[in-house]
């Protein structure tokens, strides 16, 4: 399969000022990326990890400080115009809607790409149908719901039938139903149109539900890239959480679980005790837990509850970075850089417009 995105050593540094001192932020710190034709890739990472900055380099809105990338076969610096013609870009902020009606916005946008009015109208109306925007052609975008506006953004990003679509946090700010609905549409982009999709998200469930492959970024560096199933398989086992009825037997239960971990090649002392809970990661727990329960029963250790959890993408993130995605986000929120400039360039083009 052809490479739709091929990046090596991408770097982006920003200089921020704090009083008289200048500070260099390495927002993206040597990123390699490969995305094949027809893949749906989720680019996952906490706030401030460098997702948007990477996307803006790949979409030619930001010139890399170092490194190189080709997108749809074109160099993002030397062939920026060709890159822009080949891609759709739906930014985080969404399109800057004018006072025009939704259909007119979409048609104007198509004409920016060189489509005739007739072609743009035809394609636009088809997209409104596919994206579940019936009867909204003559509506003013400002009167639409959040989910409808987001789908209108996507229609604008797709009007010129790009082979590659970049979606920056497509469902942020939407209610659960609108998110689920948009997921269906994003999944349909590949099925109906054969498009390659590269989407950023900080929602684990979103990355899981939509992506063939997940690329995880943290502090400007790629920490993992694989299918969700393979990433989860790297985390050693399912989490078994035993709640022991009698506090006096917690130690005995921990010893028993520790023995099971040791048999499975793990460390005995990897068992965690938290109040009356005893936890440990057991590979293929489904096959091991019945025996464990029989042992505990034989030893007269009663359980108040038992839970077995398959590894989640958050466990993967934790194993790779030493902190959970939620903690990483809390850190980013608690430590705002006073000189942060919002990542919107003065010369930002509307969603996907060629320049
Ligand atoms: N124009 C800029 N000037 C200075 N610093 C910037 C600029 N743009 C981004 N940054 C910084 O670069 C880092 C990466 O930001 P980026 O927006 O790429 O992260 P992100 O992963 O997309 O986060 P989010 O999920 O919050 O959108 C952050 O520390 C951010 O503050």
Kindly summarize this structure in a few lines.
The protein is of the alpha/beta class and 355 residues long. It has 12 helices and 14 strands.
Features:
DrrA, Rossmann fold, Alpha-Beta Plaits, alpha/beta, about 350 residues, membrane, binds adenosine-5'-triphosphate, single chain
Percent of residues in helices comes to 25-40%
CATH topology of the largest domain, which one? Answer: Rossmann fold
- How many β-strand runs? 14
Question: How many helices?
Answer: 12
The residue ranges in which pLDDT falls below 50 over 5 or more consecutive positions are 338-355
Lateral arrangement of strands in the main beta sheet: 6-7-8-3-9-10
**What composes the largest sheet?**
6 strands, mixed
Instruction: Give the total of domains.
Output: 2
Helices and strands: which structural class?
alpha/beta
CATH-scheme architecture of the largest domain: 3-Layer(aba) Sandwich
The outline comes out as elongated
Ligand inventory: adenosine-5'-triphosphate
Q: Could you give the order of the helices and strands?
A: EEEHEEHEHHHEHEHEEHEHEEHEHH
Radius of gyration: 24 Å
Mean pLDDT: 86
What is the subunit organization of this protein? single chain
- Cα(first) to Cα(last) distance is 29 Å
By CATH's scheme, which homologous superfamily of the largest domain applies? P-loop containing nucleotide triphosphate hydrolases
